Amino acid sequence: MTPEIRTALDAAVQQLGDLDLGDRFEPRAASAIVDAGLHRLCVPIQQGGLGASMVEAADVLTALGAVDGATALGFAMQTHVVGGMRESAVFPDRLRERLYRAIVDDGALLNNAATEEGGGSPARGAIPGTTARQADDGSWRLTGEKTWTTWLPNLSFAFVTARLVPQEDVEVGTFLVDLSRPGVERRPGFDAMGMRGSASGRLALQDVSAELVQRRRPGDADPRGPAPGHWFAIVVAAVYLGVGEGARRDVVRWALDRRPGDGSTAVADIPSVRLRLGRLDAELRAARIVVLGAARRWDEQCDGSDLPLAKLVASRAAVSATDEALRIAGGPGFLAGRLERAFRDARAGLINPPLEDVALAGFANDLVERERPGERPA
Ligand SMILES: Cc1cc2nc3c(=O)[nH]c(=O)nc-3n(C[C@H](O)[C@H](O)[C@H](O)COP(=O)(O)OP(=O)(O)OC[C@H]3O[C@@H](n4cnc5c(N)ncnc54)[C@H](O)[C@@H]3O)c2cc1C
User: Fold this and answer.
1) Domains contained in the chain, CATH given
2) Is 115 in the pocket of ligand 1 (CB under 6 A)?
3) Whole-model pTM?
4) Which of 142, 154, 219, 371 is the most exposed place for a label (fewest CB within 10 A)?
């Protein structure tokens, strides 16, 4: 990690430590990241950013995830949007420059708004109900409602997916929406099991002007290339790895302090607890190696093939580590608090794409095709 990134991360972590972060959305958490300059993480250095590589970004998000899962997830959205845009094969230069300026000069925060109520997961190719219509002057106008838009209260811009109308053939576009425009309404509502502080709310659009970034038919490859998908996978992997690592730190500290019964033995010194701690640690350390290794391979060789694996391994490790942590802490861990929250937050990783069945099907497909007669190495 460069000294500039380290300084910004340390400043953000220190400010976050002064906030009483919990299940409620805390707008000052986003301000802490912007005040520390960390929001420029993936903006190129020449444009005033910190120029983080994928492995550096993963390192930062893991550290934030160990402090607060919801804050890390909110900032992960900015990280993957900017990282993916920076490395996108095709992206309008004019928009890219404008967004870099908005981030550096105005502290702008960005996210994608793709999911819709009833529409199902966009990761499985859902067609948006939100419509994009071209006005007489050629500008695009969007109408519809998006759900699950993380950090919605903090966002300045969103990349919104919409179906182009009126058109016989189905075509889906991605549009940049300035959320200060008339017709934009931010509706709260994220009554979820975990990541409650992420304020993943509903974005309602009524005839809002928007700029077209890309358009394609369902099933066609994304013209922006693989970078946006790869960045999404790594940020999700890093956040949940961080949630698991935070729970590991918290449970070890708790187990050292807690001396039930006659007070002679700390929970940390009970042999069966040691076994649980070792198991929890082994899973998280293995996940860390996979996550950082996969990110490094993208940085150094443009090979993103292990990124879905990184997300799968990290989210599984977070789920089992927070489960072990709860078993270690027993009753006190079951009461509302950091361990109990980490247990719930980690489970959101099972819902965030890339989805586990999609990743596993991809691995199986590669295996089978590699061994198919005619493809086998001699
Ligand atoms: C904490 C959090 C933050 C999020 N933030 C954002 C955000 O900022 N922006 C955004 O756009 N979205 C966001 N999302 C939404 C997320 O990406 C999903 O789109 C959303 O959870 C709905 O997808 P789903 O697969 O759960 O639902 P559905 O598509 O309704 O699927 C329901 C169930 O059926 C399964 N299923 C559906 N189709 C198939 C199929 N063809 N084959 C096999 N199984 C199938 C799914 O795996 C799932 O288990 C967020 C989600 C979470 C958990």
Assistant:
1) 3-109 (1.10.540.10), 111-216 (2.40.110.10), 227-371 (1.20.140.10)
2) yes
3) 0.96
4) 219
